Amino acid sequence: MSIRLRLTLWYSVILAVTLVVFGIAFYYFVSYNTYHVMKDKIATQANAINITSSLDSFDNILIARESLLGDEELFIQVYNYKRGVYQQTPNLKSLDEKFPQPDAKQVSKADEGFKHVKLGGKYPFLVYQHLLKQGNEVFGLLQVGAYSGTEDRYMSELRTTLIFSLIVVVLIAFTISFFLARQALRPIENVIQASNSIQNGSDLSMRIPRVGPNDELGRLTDTLNGMLGRMETTYNELDEAYKAQRRFVSDASHELRTPLTTIRGNIELLERMWPPALEAGGDAEAGDDDPAARSDRSRMTMTREAMHDIAGEAKRMSNLVNDLLALARADAGYEMEKTTQPLLPLVEDVARRAQLLPRQADWKIGNLTAIDNVQVNAHADFLRQLLFIFVENAFKYTPSGYVEMRAIRSQDQAGVIIKDTGIGMNNKEVPHIFERFYRADESRGETSGTGLGLSIAKWIIDEHGGSVEVSTREGEGTTFTVWLPIAFHGRMNEV
User: Where does the Histidine kinase domain lie (predicted)?
Assistant: First the structure.
């Protein structure tokens, strides 16, 4: 429930309670004044009858004529409990009705006073009852009443008017309060809209419109606008720094590729030009006892080892530069050019080339029939790179056992599983393995790497609209499942 609606309901409830209390007080005030004159007249007549009447408790009860005030609007009835005899004024006799009286065995002091009764179910009367006693014994009942139809109708109409007025006033007040609350809380709506615009569009140039007086909400708006201004300045500075960093990484990667390529090419050329005789250890007949020959062979061996080291480091640096260049492309929003192509030949090509990778574990190619005739919308080179990353990662952390690749199918997605029986990971590390430069617990084994491979793999998966699942356990191995959406316009066989 919104603040605006809560405030409106609170105002309406308070107003309704106030009006109800006021209406009840007003109703009883009018009721008292309306029936007060009638009650005085009835009580005066009852007292006059009680004082001047001739009361016979054993034979009859006589109402003296002089006791009547001559008011035809008053209706008088006297009931003798001993004889069961009524005496009524002519106007009451003409109605052919009797005022109800309590039973003689149950009559008590509580039966005295004013009562509202209806004769014949349609004539409302206000009746004053007075017990007639001789000693402590009640022998009769004096009842003096007046027709109260006009007053009852007036009070009924007043009650209806008050209830209707209460409902109308509360509804009007609710509507007005809702509108006023909306106007008063409009700055908060502006704050919410501006926050949503910033959240959805990252537009920090958005400002909250300043409306209304300089109240608490106005000052809040000014404070938030100032905060947004500072955030925009800080964000722009960080964005510029980030762009400069991306440009540096991209430019440095491009610049480093050329000298590294030259170094690797020259090293490979020197290795191919290396004399086979020196590779075999030289001519034994050249004189093993000749110190000069042994020194030359030693220098040649050291040179050869240095060339191998240079070649290895140059290859490692080339891989690092290529990874950095791939991530720079990802940061720059590089869009891959994808085409629809069969998935099975691509996976089989990766499986064939994986046999040539340096490894200690066995390489197994499982069942790939699940993706037979399945087509995906993909960039072939990047998709191969994606699978090679997971395969090389599995070989790297599997010193013994095996690494297996197989395929599965689930509705509109095709999956490639790379499973190893290596050292595995702690489940707490899984959420971080796709972060850049993250190395999962390096103390578990001496493995080389930069921690960029899985970051590149995640970028390639995202670009292809796919996903990856990771299942791992320390000491038992890790399973990666790469899911790719199937292009349905290709011919497919369900498996």
Answer: 251-488
pLDDT tens digits for 197-229? 766 666 667 676 766 667 666 777 778 778 877
pLDDT tens for residues 7-35?
Answer: 788 888 888 898 899 999 998 999 888 88
- Could you say which of 2.60.40.2470, 1.10.287.130, 3.40.630.10, 1.10.860.10 is the CATH number of the domain covering 205-334? 1.10.287.130
Residue 413 dihedral angles phi and psi, to the nearest 5°: -130, 145
| CATH code, residues 339-485 | 3.30.565.10
Distance of CA 387 to the CA centre of its chain: 38
